[in-house]
Amino acid sequence: MSIATATRMESVDIDQENVHGNSTSRKRIFIPAIGSLGDVKPFLILAQELKNRGHIVWLGVHKRFEEKVKATGIDTVEIGGDMEISLSTTPDGIELQRSASVFKLGLAKRVLLPIIEEWFNGILAGVKDADFIVFPCSCVLVGLSCIEKYPNIKAIGIYTFPCVRTAEFTPPALGGQSESMFSWMNSLKWKMLEYGASSMYNDRINQLRASIDLAPIKLNYDQMIESIFHKPMKTATIYSKYLIPRPSDWSENDHLVGPILEEENHDFQPSIDIQMFLDKWENEKIIYVGLGSMMSIMFGRDDQLEFLKNIQQAIGNNNCKAIISLVGLQQANIDKLTSDENIFFLKEIIPHCWLFPNMSATIHHGGAGTTHTSLRYGLPTLVLPFGADQPFNGDRIFVNKLGPRPIPIRKTNVKNLTNAISDLMQNYSMYQANAKTIGESMRDEDGLGHCVRLIEAELMA
């Protein structure tokens, strides 16, 4: 473990020891929250709740999120391998994200294997003094491959989208439609996903295991869990059962508990400009457009500007009002956009839990957190997915009649955006009624409470 990591772990010992005293119920919990800010948020909320209950909790996050996490009172361990930075700043990363293909396995390995190595080492350092580890789906295989070094540790998987094999729908991580007519096809796709992960990472994982005197393994989810714990590992998928029902072929250890979302923020003070825009159009429908940090990763400067022009024209073609978030599009030259009193360009991060109650509909990338938040406030939604689980989430929106069919972000143009927004507005009453019904039901799911209870039950077992 590096000196820097050791110092951070010492900080965990001292700072939270002083806060909680010597409670015998206190346990030490490590959560490697790897990914984007949207990936970190639910685990930060979980960490805060666990800390409030007397546990010592620290998050493993990428360097750029450490300050934000520490500001909430949660300690951190830095985990390298920030995929967003690798994909947007390295030549191989830029090439991979602009033209990903199954035929570019060598390129993918050059980009991803160094990232996996940093995750392995970061999790290994972070878990050293823990009684318990929470695995997100992004790093569950990497985490399982290294925690064998500490045989007494307990664990749970908490997944932002379904990651447990089922014959009832396709793997969200593969993208695409969420349903297939044939259960055997769904099962085959889960096997393909597992085979792909094993082919990509198995050799490097075993090299890393050898460096810490662990025997080689086969990178297989079920086999690894049985080998380490000698029993099934409990999982909690923080996804709404109202978007997709819990699969009947999941075991009793696999729970679908509902999302973990930010609490409503009544104290947030918006800028005068955005408040004036909201006041001006308070009797009109306002659409929120936000595509998160992926926009600057997947699109170059010219492509970002082209998308902004296309979405602005599509909104204008439908005579709509909109707030377009420029967060994640910092490279785009907004001075080249046409001034429009019907559109507000948002340049600051505003909590969705404050903004969305003021919106009538949303257009976003389909991240699990944003998808659930938009539905929580009963907002009809159009998803423009980049990849990973986003096409799956967009398809669930469409299947449940909560918004139009999703459009892959790279296939958007003025025509199909205009048509999709027209659909959103013309069928607004139906979409809104369905979204409100789901939103009201989701509020009773209590994903956070379920996760805490599952963790504490495992700690007592």
Automatic annotation (TrEMBL):
One Pfam family named in its UniProt record: EryCIII-like_C
Transferase recorded as keyword: yes
Record Gene3D superfamilies: Glycogen Phosphorylase B
TM ranges: none
Keyword Transferase included in the entry's annotation: yes
GO BP, sorted A to Z: carbohydrate metabolic process
N-terminal signal peptide: none
InterPro entries attached to this UniProt entry: EryCIII-like_C, Glycosyltransferase_28, GlycoTrans_28_N, UDP_glucos_trans
SUPFAM superfamilies according to UniProt: UDP-Glycosyltransferase/glycogen phosphorylase
GO molecular function: sterol 3-beta-glucosyltransferase activity
Domain Erythromycin biosynthesis protein CIII-like C-terminal: 346-442
Keywords assigned by UniProt, alphabetized: Transferase
Origin superkingdom: Eukaryota
Name recorded for this polypeptide: Glycosyltransferase
Species of origin: Rotaria sordida
